[in-house]
């Protein structure tokens, strides 16, 4: 009995100790919460005081109103920025495309790039006029130097002729080779009109089609292709059988002799590099004052290189905005390597209407040339003499 009572007392004592511990914990929490409450209460009173003080110093300055225009988007600003960005982008794109374009663009550029004189600048032909003057194969058939004597194109060919006559003091070149770096440069057109320009001086002129690979001059002059140069060099015909007189399409009193290319041979370079061709040139020099020779392009073929060593001089034809600069330099270097005499460059298909800034002195020249002829052809005013 006593032990059980003792055990009960011990349990009660332990419970009382635990309750005392819990009481102390709760008491500390109460004290803490009371302090927090007092602190918050004090802070609340301070804020009320501050709010009452501020409210007395605040007053409306301007009342809110509905805006008459939207804040965003700013149309004028956006339009101005778009215009500026568009202009800058266009200018940058133009310079970028100009940087990527490696073709010949101006005659002045030709002189700086190749260090060769420009003998003349042939203006471009408008599309409408070009369609009238093209055959089925796309070859221009008009002799501007004769049929349009007052045109800028005719004056360009006369300028080339004059430049050649003054190329060597007292001894102008008698045999002239006309070639270009690539196909489509306009060398055939230049050769045709240069021969016509020579013929206007009442000179004995011979035009020779030395393009034994792709002969086309006989179509323009309405002459039979065979027999021609290749047949003569092969020993099949005489010289008298291959020389044709052309006078019907060149105007009154203007005649030239013409030698066609003849049958397409399997070995054009060998024929042009033969002793027979050298002997033929000697005979022709004695008979004619001027000999103009058309040849294949320089890039890809050796014909023009062989011919350049046999003639007095070579004209290099470059087509504006078509002939790449590397091709032009390659053609010049190859001609110099074989000992050819480059008389100068003719820049073909130049659009002079673009202005003097783009084409330099040549555009201004053709402008004043056309103005001069338009002035000379205008009717006289009444009472003026």
From TrEMBL:
Q: Name one Pfam family in it.
A: CbiA
Keywords carried by this UniProt record: ATP-binding, Kinase, Membrane, Nucleotide-binding, Transferase, Transmembrane, Transmembrane helix, Tyrosine-protein kinase
Q: Where is the CobQ/CobB/MinD/ParA nucleotide binding domain?
A: 177-352
Q: Which CDD domains match?
A: BY-kinase
* Catalytic reaction(s) noted: L-tyrosyl-[protein] + ATP = O-phospho-L-tyrosyl-[protein] + ADP + H(+)
Tell me which EC number(s) this protein carries. 2.7.10.2
Q: Which residues form the Tyrosine-protein kinase G-rich domain?
A: 26-96
GO MF annotation, one: non-membrane spanning protein tyrosine kinase activity
InterPro entries linked: Bact_polysacc_biosynth/exp, CobQ/CobB/MinD/ParA_Nub-bd_dom, GNVR, P-loop_NTPase, Wzc-like_C
**Broadest EC class assigned to this enzyme:** transferase
Annotated Gene Ontology cellular component terms:
plasma membrane
Query: So where does this one cross the membrane?
Result: 77-97
- State if Calcium is listed as a keyword: no
Q: Which family does it belong to?
A: Belongs to the etk/wzc family.
The entry's protein name is: Polysaccharide biosynthesis tyrosine autokinase
**Organism the protein comes from:** Thermosulfidibacter takaii
């Amino acid at each position: 009995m006593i032990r059980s009572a003792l055990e009960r007392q011990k349990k009660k004592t332990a419970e009382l100790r635990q309750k005392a511990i819990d009481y102390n914990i709760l008491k500390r929490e109460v004290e803490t919460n009371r302090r927090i409450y007092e602190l918050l209460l004090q802070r609340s009173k301070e804020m009320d005081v501050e709010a009452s003080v501020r409210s007395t110093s605040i007053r409306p300055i301007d009342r809110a109103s509905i805006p008459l225009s939207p804040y965003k988007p700013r149309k004028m600003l956006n339009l101005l920025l778009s215009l500026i960005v568009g202009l800058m982008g266009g200018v940058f794109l133009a310079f970028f495309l100009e940087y990527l374009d490696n073709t010949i663009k101006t005659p002045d550029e030709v002189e700086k790039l190749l260090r060769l004189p420009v003998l003349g600048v042939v203006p471009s032909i408008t599309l409408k006029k070009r369609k009238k003057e093209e055959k089925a194969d796309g070859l221009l058939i008009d002799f501007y130097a004769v049929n349009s004597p007052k045109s800028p194109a005719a004056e360009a060919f006369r300028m080339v002729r004059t430049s050649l006559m003054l190329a060597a003091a007292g001894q102008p070149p008698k045999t002239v080779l006309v070639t270009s770096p690539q196909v489509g440069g306009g060398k055939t057109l230049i050769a045709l009109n240069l021969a016509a320009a020579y013929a206007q001086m009442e000179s004995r002129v011979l035009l020779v089609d030395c393009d034994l690979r792709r002969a086309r001059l006989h179509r323009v002059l309405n002459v039979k292709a065979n027999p021609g140069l290749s047949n003569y060099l092969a020993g099949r015909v005489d010289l008298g059988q291959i020389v044709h007189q052309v006078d019907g399409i060149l105007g009154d009193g203007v005649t030239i002799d013409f030698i066609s290319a003849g049958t397409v041979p399997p070995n054009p370079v060998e024929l042009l590099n033969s002793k027979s061709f050298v002997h033929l040139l000697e005979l022709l020099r004695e008979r004619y004052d001027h000999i103009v020779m058309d040849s294949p392009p320089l890039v890809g073929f050796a014909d023009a290189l062989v011919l350049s060593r046999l003639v007095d001089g070579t004209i290099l034809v470059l087509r504006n905005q078509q002939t790449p600069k590397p091709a032009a330099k390659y053609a010049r270097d190859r001609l110099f390597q074989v000992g050819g005499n480059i008389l100068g460059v003719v820049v073909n298909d130049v659009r002079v209407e673009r202005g003097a800034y783009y084409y330099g002195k040549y555009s201004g020249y053709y402008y004043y040339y056309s103005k001069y002829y338009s002035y000379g052809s205008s009717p006289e005013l009444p009472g003026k003499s």
